[in-house]
Structure formats: C-alpha cells, structure tokens
Amino acid sequence: MSEISADMSVRTAQAGGFYEVVRQLQDVDVQAACMAADGYRVRQALAKDTLSPEDFLALLSPAARPYMESMAHKARDVTVRQFGRTIQLFTPLYLSNWCTNRCVYCSFNACSGIDRMQLDAAGVLREGQAIAATGLRHLLLLTGEAPAKASVDYIRDCVRVLRPLFPSLSIEVYALTEPEYRTLAVAGVDGMTLFQETYNEALYPSLHPAGPKSNYHFRLGAPERACRAGMRNVNIGALLGLDQWQRDAFMTGMHALWLQHRYPGVDIAVSLPRMRPYAGSFQPVCDVDDRALVQILLAMRLFLPRCGITISTRERPAFRDNLIPLGVTRMSAGVSTAVGGHAENEHSSVGQFEISDPRSVDEVVEAVSRVGYQAVFKDWHPLEDSCAV
C-alpha cells in the first residue's frame, strides 16, 4: 500500500491528463496492494469523512468484507445527505446498431452477423413518443461505432427530433473529438456516457482487436473532451468482469476523482455494469458476484460522496431494489437494447445484451416508492423553451 500512497492525491489533481495517472499506476501492483489491506486499515478508512485513494483500496479489499454492514449504513447516510431519497429514472434509445468494431464481448461486433438497423427521422420520433408516453424525461441515445452510418450530423438530427419531447438528452456513442462533442452540446445534448470497458492497457487490445475503439488513448481522453466541450454531466465506468474487478473499480473511482478535480462545474457520475449474455461466446475472466458488486457500490459512494451512481437493467429486479438505499442515484426503466425496441417490437433488432430487469416504468416507480424513495422523472430543464415539460 505504501507504494501507492506516496502522492497519489496530488497527482490526480495536477496530472496533465488522466493517462498520466494510469501510466504512473502501471508500476504499482494495485491488485496486490488491495489484497494486502487488513481490518485495521479498513476501520481507519471507515472513520474518515474524506477518503484517500489508499482508503478506497482498503474498502475494495477482501479485508473489508466483514465490515460491509458498517459500510452500508455510512453509504446510505452519505447518499441521503447529498442527494436526498431520490432516484432519477431514464431509458436508453438505440438509434443504430451498425458498428465497425470487433469487441469480443458485444453483440454489435462487426463480425457477429446480426441484422443491422438504423432509425430514420420518423422511426426516431415514434420511439421518442412511445418513451415520452411513459412519463420519462431523461433519455440516453446510443449507437454502435460506425461514423459513416451514424455520423455526428445524423446524431444531431436525431437530437433535433427528440428535443421537443425530452428536456435532458444524453449520448452513449463512440468516442468523439472535442469539436464534435461541442456540436452536439450546442444542438441540445447535455450529457455524455462512455465506458473505458477496462483500464488495463495491456489487456485492452485483446478485447478490442480491430476498429476505432481499439485506440485505448483516444477513448480514455473522451470524457475530458466532453467536459471541455460543455457537457453538463459526464458518466464513466468499466465493464466489470473484463479484468480483475478490484483494479477496474479502483481505476474508475480514480478517473471520476480526477475529472471532479479538473472540471468542478461538471456533474461527474459512474455506472457499475456487469457482463451480461449477448450474441456471442466470450466469457468474462473475472466473476463479479452480487456481494462484490455491493462492495464496489459502497466503496465508490464513500470515496466519491458527490458522485452520481447508476445501476442498469443488467441487474435483476429484486437485487436492484435492494441496492437503492445503498448509494444508487440513477436507474434505467422500461428498457429495450434493440433498435426500434420501444415502438416497433415486432420489427426490432437483436439487442446489444440481455437485460435482467424487464419491468415497465410504472413498475420501477412502484418499486422505488416501496423502499421509501421518490422516483424523479425530471431534475433538469434548459433555459430555452424548446423542450416539453
């Protein structure tokens, strides 16, 4: 642990880019440092209001397992103090599944042989109207990585179709340049989600053998470019299971901390997705069981008290409900991962992955209420009058 503790906090605030932090940590065995933590170190971390990276590692360690009840109580209190008893709801809208990447764990892989679809303006409007009818006002737009098909201009045109229906539009698309992010921000996109998938630079090429996404550095810098381009909120994460979960969870937390320090005016958030079945045969190298996911959630909340945390429909209903009081602030509801999946079910494509929570928006709202929290459909409205209320 001492190798990491030298001056990590200073580095995270002063580094010229987050890759500088990744590079410096390459010389440190983060996994071994995590495993070396003991109960005394965990109790020290739990006694603090502001945690260091070393404290975060201790809470991700096996030594923290006997203290998860204490972590849960503190995480719940911190979350209520920062966010109240609220859960913001949103849903994804898949615009296109064309993709030029060959990510080994994704149904959209260019070699997967699935039917390819892309919504035209009329299809986008039908999907948007179907979602808006559920009451949702936060929307996440997704595409595969095929700029020749789903270009920035195409995404911008879709935003213009949807903007009258939704006060908040976020994107989860391929990594863009700063001018491209700015183009979409001007068009009305206020949030960006992008997963690094794994922060392990040595492992990354084998998981992304071809396509633009194989550029580890360009993808790693995308969240910072989105912050500079004027996005109101930026959401990051790793696909848990691709590498040892302690390492990717730790690096996700460090990345979020670095962005918070660098861009204090941007709402930085994290998602905690686990690998799910998809149209392929890749198996994750690391089993992230329920207890491990809970530990990651609790440690992340205590390390980053102001950070939004999303739990998606990759998790099953009862498990998602149990996580609500432990630090979650955003949940998806009424989800389809297929193009045209909201309004055109009979014609929709293969989904990006199998979801575990198929509940409708009303059912999720009821579940949130049942545990004493309020489901929030809208907590943001732009100054312009171009959006529906």
Topology (SSEs and partners):
Layout: H1 2-5, H2 8-14, H3 18-25, H4 30-35, H5 39-46, H6 53-60, H7 68-83, E1 86-96, H8 121-132, E2 138-143, H9 152-162, E3 168-172, H10 178-187, E4 189-197, H11 204-207, H12 216-220, H13 222-228, E5 233-238, H14 245-262, E6 267-271, H15 290-303, E7 308-311, H16 317-323, E8 330-332, H17 361-370, E9 374-376
Helix pairs in contact: 5-6, 6-14, 6-15, 7-15, 8-9, 9-10, 14-15
Describe the structure.
The protein is 40% helix and 13% strand. It is built from 17 helices and nine strands. Strands 1-2-3-4-5-6-7-8 form an eight-stranded parallel beta barrel, surrounded by five helices. Helix 16 links the parallel strand 7 (308-311) and strand 8 (330-332). It is globular and about 60 Å long. The model is unreliable at 9-13 (pLDDT under 50).
Brief write-up:
40% of the residues lie in helices and 13% in strands. The protein is an alpha/beta fold and 389 residues long. The longest helix has 18 residues, at 245-262.
